[in-house]
Sequence to fold (424 residues):
Amino acid sequence: MSAVTSDISILGPQYETIAAKYRPIFQRIADTALERERERKLGRDAIQWLKEARFGAVRVPVEYGGDGATLPQLFQLLIELAEADSNVAQAVRGHFAFVEDRLNAPRDEQTIVWLRRFAAGDLVGNAWTEVNVAIGDVITRVSQKDGGWVVNGQKFYSTGSIFADWIDLFARRDSDGVDVIAAVSTHQPGITHQDDWDGFGQRTTGSGTSTYQDAVVEEVNIFPFAGRFKYQTAFYQLFHLVALAGIARAVTRDVAQQVRERKRIFSTGNAPAVAQDVQIQQVVGEISALTYAAEATAIRASFAAQRAYDAHWSGDADREKQANIEAELESAQGQVVVSDLVLRASSQLFNALGASAASSSKALDRHWRNARTVASHNPLVYKARIIGDWHINGTEPPYVWQIGAGSGQAAPSDSTTAEAGQAA
Fold:
């Protein structure tokens, strides 16, 4: 079977069956998105609707209570969700990354416990990034106390944690200095969340500061970071790609609606109604084309991630390594082009409309602000260089990267550290 045929079968006819379950919720989220944006209101209700529908178990195998979706199917669903509200899609990024890690783990009793938790509606947040730390270091600690294990530290960019039942937390274990992931329950004292993310875009993702003071974590829920699933950087980046593609779909939707409903025209225009103006039609058509290219690129890159997942279970180390390289490169290639496509689309929107489109009540600027923020997470220039280095010199792309104060420099107040593409 050719690669193209295989890729098409991955999305498959079952996608519509899965999507049909969630589209009414996506519509409900879309109907309330403008209110959340205007009031800077966290999407607690939207997240709760997704939890009640068990959306977080989309990737969980059917035998454990999930939908058994492939990665392309998951990311296509996330594009639909991001079209409804890209903030909500971004808020579940950490959840699906932790789910993916558990799906790559041996199917032992403890892994099955996690899969059933996801199927029951449990949601996982993210807490990896720190401030005031040198690059390569981590301050948050997992240590023993009173015969158990506790977490102490503070994280920033804790996307989705404010909504979550569990936290996927990156820390260092005191006893041996090993970097670990601690899956910490939020249903306990010692954990506080602040909605203090002050970005001009993606404002309601719950990406603020989280603090841990002797927060209890079970030993069975402490995992060596070295065992994290190998295509995680590509996976995290794919989330950005589908968020951008969803924003572009929202731009296409909104510009078409605004043009269709617009009554005022310019004397220099081409028709008695804006909807019939051929130049405006051209602008909307160009936006639609940019959106198509962004979505197609994002989904194409998700096929590579699916191949990496499949290779993990093949028992062929060489095949798995090559699949991980391809997943990383394809997600990076997608980032370099999709960011530009969606920023152009969200700016071009205003060329189809008059100055009234700048009204804050319409909040059409949110599309550009959200796209610009998402596109800023991982530096485009570095991704492009890594791609070029591979093509020219065969240099393997990095799977884990960090951010923080440079060597010999004091950590500034806005310094952060992160792994696997988690930095904002």
